[in-house]
Amino acid sequence: MQILVYPMKRQAYRDLLRKRERQRKRREKAMMDFGLQDVCESAAGPGPPQMALAAGGLMTQAIERDPYGLDAWDQSGCCFTGVWRDWTVG
Question: Phi and psi (nearest 5°) for 20?
């Protein structure tokens, strides 16, 4: 399997981070207003979720509309990444 990846433009990424930070602050404020500060603190978690690949299982594909729009992506350069499995038995 080969995947083609385009990086997000720097300004679009900064705008996205600012938007997410504003949303996070609004959620925290709403939770504090309702007396849920303990939930708010525990919801932060230890860090971003991890992702892994393993043998077995099924893979499905879905094509969805890009929520950021075509202009958010730097199409002047790209990166290929691949996932291969060696089927030979030695």
Answer: -65, -35
Distance (Å) of CA 48 to CA 39, 44, 45, 68, 86: 18, 10, 8, 21, 31
Contact 37, 31 (CB under 8 A): yes
Single-letter code of the amino acid located at 64:
E
* C-alpha 22 chain-centroid distance: 18
Please choose, from the candidates 2, 3, 10, 1, the residue with its C-alpha nearest in 3D space to the C-alpha of residue 74: 10
For 29-35, the CB contacts below 8 A with 24+ separation are none
* Residue range 45-86, pLDDT digits in tens: 556 666 666 677 777 888 899 999 999 999 887 788 777 666
Contact 84, 55 (CB under 8 A): no
Instruction: Check the CA dihedral 41-47-51-57 and report its sign.
Output: negative
